[in-house]
Amino acid sequence: MKIDKNSISDYNSQYKDTFEQEFRFVSDSLEQKGLNVESVVKKISDFQVAIPSWALGAGGTRFGRFSYGGEPSSLEQKLNDIGVLNALTKSAGAVSLHIPWDIPDDTQAIKEIAESHGIAFDAMNSNTFQDQPGAEETYKFGSLNNTSKNVRDYAIQHNLDVIRIGEELGSKSLTVWLADGANFPGQLNFQNALKYTEDSLKSIYQYLPEDWRMFIEYKPYEPNFYSTTIQDWGTSFMLANACGEKAFTLVDLGHHLPNTNIEQIVATLLLKGKLGGFHFNDSKYGDDDVTVGSIKPYALFLIFNELVYGMENNPQNPSLAWMIDASHNIKDPLEDLLQSIEAILIAYAQALLIDQKDLREAQLQNDVVKCQEILQDAYRTDVRPLVKAARLKANAALNPLDAYRSFEVRKELIKERGNKTIATGL
Amino acid sequence: MKIDKNSISDYNSQYKDTFEQEFRFVSDSLEQKGLNVESVVKKISDFQVAIPSWALGAGGTRFGRFSYGGEPSSLEQKLNDIGVLNALTKSAGAVSLHIPWDIPDDTQAIKEIAESHGIAFDAMNSNTFQDQPGAEETYKFGSLNNTSKNVRDYAIQHNLDVIRIGEELGSKSLTVWLADGANFPGQLNFQNALKYTEDSLKSIYQYLPEDWRMFIEYKPYEPNFYSTTIQDWGTSFMLANACGEKAFTLVDLGHHLPNTNIEQIVATLLLKGKLGGFHFNDSKYGDDDVTVGSIKPYALFLIFNELVYGMENNPQNPSLAWMIDASHNIKDPLEDLLQSIEAILIAYAQALLIDQKDLREAQLQNDVVKCQEILQDAYRTDVRPLVKAARLKANAALNPLDAYRSFEVRKELIKERGNKTIATGL
Amino acid sequence: MKIDKNSISDYNSQYKDTFEQEFRFVSDSLEQKGLNVESVVKKISDFQVAIPSWALGAGGTRFGRFSYGGEPSSLEQKLNDIGVLNALTKSAGAVSLHIPWDIPDDTQAIKEIAESHGIAFDAMNSNTFQDQPGAEETYKFGSLNNTSKNVRDYAIQHNLDVIRIGEELGSKSLTVWLADGANFPGQLNFQNALKYTEDSLKSIYQYLPEDWRMFIEYKPYEPNFYSTTIQDWGTSFMLANACGEKAFTLVDLGHHLPNTNIEQIVATLLLKGKLGGFHFNDSKYGDDDVTVGSIKPYALFLIFNELVYGMENNPQNPSLAWMIDASHNIKDPLEDLLQSIEAILIAYAQALLIDQKDLREAQLQNDVVKCQEILQDAYRTDVRPLVKAARLKANAALNPLDAYRSFEVRKELIKERGNKTIATGL
Amino acid sequence: MKIDKNSISDYNSQYKDTFEQEFRFVSDSLEQKGLNVESVVKKISDFQVAIPSWALGAGGTRFGRFSYGGEPSSLEQKLNDIGVLNALTKSAGAVSLHIPWDIPDDTQAIKEIAESHGIAFDAMNSNTFQDQPGAEETYKFGSLNNTSKNVRDYAIQHNLDVIRIGEELGSKSLTVWLADGANFPGQLNFQNALKYTEDSLKSIYQYLPEDWRMFIEYKPYEPNFYSTTIQDWGTSFMLANACGEKAFTLVDLGHHLPNTNIEQIVATLLLKGKLGGFHFNDSKYGDDDVTVGSIKPYALFLIFNELVYGMENNPQNPSLAWMIDASHNIKDPLEDLLQSIEAILIAYAQALLIDQKDLREAQLQNDVVKCQEILQDAYRTDVRPLVKAARLKANAALNPLDAYRSFEVRKELIKERGNKTIATGL
Asked: Which keywords label this protein (chains A, B, C, D) (predicted)?
């Protein structure tokens, strides 16, 4: 299934008039406030978020899984799915692979498929939280933090393999997420676990290609329920510093304790030049991995406020690797991803509307009421016409979700692939 | 300080053109979707939220308090402050008094002042969490749940006194918030504490005037840090049922454990006809009592979705008592309240835009994606022109906060009252 | 694998002297305080906790599962595993079955095996959170709360089937745990979902045999991540009241929001005669289902304090159904269960030491310091000799875990069953 | 009021026989396991925890305060109160002062009083979270992080004043706790606030005497309810590194988000040689500041496990500054502190019982069950006789709380000071 440019043009034509009316209204009122709307639209249009290969099939919980028809059962099919997302939005121009689930049989062929969809290879993900059939060592009691040197070496080697595969595909970064930790007090010697982790990360880092970056993820709990060795940004930051200048912290929105002020963490990392990547999702209770913006859209906006500020003011921080890391337990995965992309672009657009100069002024005067007004004014603006304008500019669909449904994509995929496929991986 | 109608008309005239343009745009696009905009505007206009007398001065924390100039030091001045809010918004047409802080010296005079501002007397609040100078009994170890019959009787009598004062003023309801609980395991016999509370509430209830209602508030912790006797809606609901049909549960947004799904509680209480009142505020960590909508505006919208549904579909539930229960630690209290009122009206307006028929249809088809789209479409709409329209209709200010500042209200209040007054109460 | 009485006697003989010394010391000092040690030991000895059939194999998370050797692959083998636990502890004399995982092929044979191990059939568990192969309806969008009458009827019928199977085995209760809820705002109409749930539960209730009880479990989240229809004790209590006097609330320790005061909920339910059952486990973050007492043993003690009080003072509440509901992700399941049983008995023993008369006196005097001292004195006492005495009395092993290891039970089970079996169910 | 040695000897004599019996029993069974009981007792006896001067009066919440009779109203009286605690326990041989509440009028006299009680001057605490009468600048919008250079300089100068006063008294460390943060999104520019804080801390640090240490406290929220500039250990650690080798992180048990694994933070800081001090208290919900060990004693034990390990294995980390930072809302403050001291010593003693060699061995074998057994065995041991032995050795009371009551200390204090004194400070 591939959506061609013409179908999108045809689809758009029916909504163009309404769109133009909306856009003119929003655009006019923003220009009146002194905003450069064209520049905002361009920024939205340039924003690209990677889709992880594992997000294209139905997710599940420890209580079970309800599968979805037409799930992709090969890397090729996963790329085709992302191709659909990218054709509809022109904001999903990258894939993030997971090894060993996505080892290409024919690298060249895979690169060509990706290219045909305009998809780049973003960060590579290693997996040291599951045992693969035939594995020589087990990660049951940890990987990079394991008390056994053999297991640590095995996990390090796996990461080096992932880098090699990534190099062939043209990726430029490695994301290390470690489930390593303990389910019970006493199980781990915290100090040794941390030292082993640091040493192992350094071992991987020393083989990192010159133009690559390494992202170190953190998470307070799950799948371990007492402690996780890299439990918070502070630990990740410390380890990234220990590794070197190509190592960075990666923030996943769902990986925080209740009530954490995530935007402040983002600001700190940007100031220190150590924010490497960002995994989008949303949650109400734990690492729920639900659709971006479906639970706390204002928090997402506040985070984007810091990101926009950092991208403007922190040359010390490299450009960021964006990825959607959600799980789709009851929705069509592609529809869910379209909703996530929309929520991301909306939050980004709102953040771009913040009058940074006024805000700075109000902060200097400790005019707390006005600071809040400035943020809420941006947030309460209906920015959807700006997002649509960005899409129109890029030949994407004005209303991607509606287009997806009107093109009957899922029906087509089920016809192609059947109702019982299961996406590789989780 | 009193703001007259003419100043507001003058103020509005300068923004009228912009407003009309905005309103027409939003109104047109909503009407096109089949919405009755006039009815929405009317509902917004009819919405009245009570201001508690204690919210007009600076709040504080256990670490101290930074006072504000021009704070009201008498009940008269408090009413005048609410008069300002009501003149600017026409949405603050009620006061909620706290006894013993607000015992009127001259009831008739107070009633006249209130009437002159268009302010009704909403729920009366009793105070059994502090000892007043000269008190015969101490609430240090509880009030209605106390092991001592003398203390319980003393607290019951206080509530009866509050009812009497309320009757003279024309109030029709009593809100009982109990700090009663324990700071340490073992301190309380939970079963006895609950039984005493139930008996005490019944004693108060039996003297409740025929046309009054009693609201029973719940809260998980603070000021007690191990247990609170009425810790959750389930306990409050049980007690309200035990008292009788004039007893209801009152929901304060800040009185919940982390991650609680409050909108579901609201729906349950509405279904059972036992939701009596609502205290608005916002919070990130605990009972932070910050400006409504300043932290989790989407959660507020979801709650209003349930309220709108209930007001439409639950004749078994009486009309609700709305109140803002926030604390103003660093903002001008009146500005803070204006921001809260705005946030409430915006959330209410957004909830009124939800297409309940489409939503019902999507729910029946388990079209989860569409359900979300319907809610988000309403939420993402810029409804501020609708709120302004409601205000214009009622002769309130188009932009209350801006008007407040342009009228230099605080400067005036400081001139009148001085810089060192302290609001009675907390 | 079956452990006979003689091996246990032999095992115990080597520790008898040390035990007797310890017991005499503790016993003497408790008797001196006026405690009836014999009665305490008898109560400990009488305490029986059910083992759920699904807890005998390795658990897992959504990120994967590390299997364990010698897992039981049939109901017979599960009963044999519990037989081992019961022989070692004489506190695990019941099993809680899960349908459809544990439908007996030959009911009579199963009953005989159970009897040979001294195992009774405790509460039956229905499963409406997963779709079984060939299922006619799907629970993807709910079961008893589903918008579709067909699905609700299907789920009701399943519960009636479970009752029937339970009757044949001699069980006397049904536990209903519902995953029903929503992953996203808008997905569910809360009021209808609650009404459907109530109606469905009543339909099941009306077929409940005269001498049966129905337990209604609650849980705030997981596997649904936005709302769960029976989200808290208040909802469960309301539903149990609506069903009738044979319906009760069931408390699972892991099913609460952060910081919930569970012991207060227990006290309230006991007072109202509506506490039906109890699922033991422990957790630090969410429903982690780790070993009982491994994270918050003092909280467990405080809960037992309420349970002991209720069993003594609340004739209105029936005797409770106790069960361990833990998951064993990295430990040998049987060892994990032995640790859980030990933790339960220790907490129970400590609670039995509390001087209720002194506590009552201190509470009446508001001597908070002394209340705490009384609880802590009981908690700080080393009660392990009392638990051992109870076991010795019942011909169980003095040190069950040590005995399990010295008998090389797991090695034996692997020899019998192999290394690759997978327990039926999750 | 001063308790002399003879009264304590007399008091002890009546409990000596029972004590000796208990001690012999515990001691024998521990020695049999290979433990050096004498060394454990010595370590307990050496342990000294500072009492903060503000903890000797009744605390309160934002809802009010219930005062206590006989509260100390001068620094002299505060030292006398600590003298009572130290006489009874010989574990409270230090005071931690708070400036400006405790500025001595006559330094020499104060030093003599302290010496007469065996009290050393531990860390000095500065106060930049409240405005003092006549203050030239206000901390309403922050101190070391303020946008105004004048305010920052004022706060820096205050800290230098505190150092000067501390030097005169013989203190060797400064604790900086900052309330600095924001109540609302937008109020603060996070990056600037952090930079200002870093610069201000460095300014203070450069005047730190050669043999002093600076402790940087962190806290996620309260009194600010949206963000705190030093929100977590990671931020504090980063700032301590930026200042230099005499700067350290200070951990206060109550300053963490729900469910934080604090013991892991402790281990990380010890490994990095950056753990400076420790504030003991306990909490169920937020920074509740209740009696140490009254809510989560097992968590306290796990933390002590890390501390004991670090004191043994981390020469890179300096000796720690221990302090009790609790608030006494309804208990006699001195009784509350006695309960806290007892809980600390018990947790310390339990941690000292852990067989580190066995634990290490079990960890290397991934014998998770055994790891847990080792910890629980230590925790379940009744160590009170060891704590008593340590006290007896030091001429302290065998049962300090009981002795306090039998000496009628509070009655005496009320006689001396009256019923209406209010402790200076909060």
From this structure: Isomerase, Manganese, Metal-binding
Banded pLDDT at A424 (limits 50, 70, 90) = low
Does D369 contact C401 at a Cβ distance shorter than 8 Å?
yes
Are A368 and B25 in contact (CB < 8 Å)? no
- Listed residue (A417, A331, B361, B359) closest to C140, CA to CA: A331
Instruction: Give me the half-sphere count of Cα atoms (radius 13 Å) on the Cβ side of residue C7.
Output: 14
Burial class for C265, CB neighbours closer than 10 Å (0-12, 13-18, 19+): buried
Question: Residue B174 forms beta bridges with which residues?
Answer: B124, B214
| Gyration radius from chain B CA atoms | 22
The C-alpha atoms of residue D30 and residue D19 are separated, in whole angstroms, by: 16
How far does CA D359 lie from the centroid of its chain? 29
Q: Which residue, A3, A29, A33, is CA-closest to A355?
A: A33
Residues with Cβ < 8 Å from A130, sequence gap 6 or more?
A139, C63, C64
What is the pTM assigned to this prediction? Answer: 0.98
Alpha carbons B224 and A315: distance in angstroms, whole number: 49
C284–A140 CB contact, under 8 Å: no
Rounded Cα–Cα distance for residues C270 and C306 (Å): 9
Look at residue D19 in the predicted model and tell me its pLDDT.
Answer: 97
Q: Helix C262-271 to helix B190-205 angle, to the nearest 10 degrees?
A: 60
Q: What DSSP assignment string belongs to B144-213? A: TT-S-HHHHHHHHHHHHHHHHHHHHHT--EEEE----EESSTTSS-HHHHHHHHHHHHHHHHTTS-TT-E
Beta bridge partners of A252: A279
Q: Is the dihedral of CA D149, D155, D159, D160 positive or negative?
A: positive
Q: Set out the domains of chain A in order of their start, with CATH numbers.
A: 47-355+396-417 (3.20.20.150)
Which of C220, C232, C363 is opposite residue B234, by nearest beta carbon?
C232
Per the structure block, which two tokens stand in for C218? Answer: 């609650």
Chain D residue with CA closest to C384: the answer is: D380
List of residues 6+ apart from D322 with CB closer than 8 A: D47, D48, D49, D50, D277, D278, D280, D344
Please count the CA atoms within 13 angstroms of the CA of D422 that sit on its side-chain side: 9
Contacts 24+ apart (CB under 8 A), D135-143: D138/B66, D139/D179, D140/A366, D140/B66, D140/B330, D141/A366, D141/A368, D141/B330, D142/D180, D142/D181, D142/D188, D142/D193, D142/D229, D143/D178, D143/D179, D143/D180, D143/D200
Query: Is residue D225 within 8 angstroms of chain A, CB to CB?
Result: no
Q: Which chains touch D (3 or more CB pairs under 8 A)?
A: A, B, C
Q: What is the pLDDT of residues A233-250, one digit of tens each?
A: 999 999 999 999 999 999
Cis amide bond preceding B220, omega within 30: no
Phi and psi at residue D64, in whole multiples of 5°? 135, -175
- Within a 13 Å sphere around the CA of A344, how many CA atoms are in the beta-carbon half? 32
Pairs across A and C, CB distance < 8 A: 104
Residue D223: is the preceding peptide bond cis (ω within 30°)? yes
Could A339 and B298 be called an inter-chain contact, meaning their C-beta atoms sit closer than 8 Å?
no
- Indicate if ipTM > 0.90: yes
Residue pointed to by tokens 């700190």: A268
CA–CA distance, A384 with A26 (Å, rounded to integer): 9
CA A206 to chain centre: 26
The shortest CB-CB distance from A369 to any of B25, B297, B339 is to B339
The CB density around residue A299, as the number of other CB atoms within 10 Å, is 22
- Angle C181-C187-C188 (CA atoms, 0-180°, nearest 5)? 55
Subunits close to C (at least 3 CB pairs below 8 A): A, B, D
Q: Provide the strand spans (E) within D21-135.
A: 50-52, 94-96, 120-121, 124-125
Task: Please choose, from the candidates C14, C25, C81, C62, the residue with its C-alpha nearest in 3D space to the C-alpha of residue C324.
Answer: C81
Q: Which residues pair with C181 in a beta bridge?
A: C228
Residue listed under structure tokens 């460390």 = D173
Each residue's pLDDT tens digit, C242-285: 999 999 999 999 999 999 999 999 999 999 999 999 999 999 99
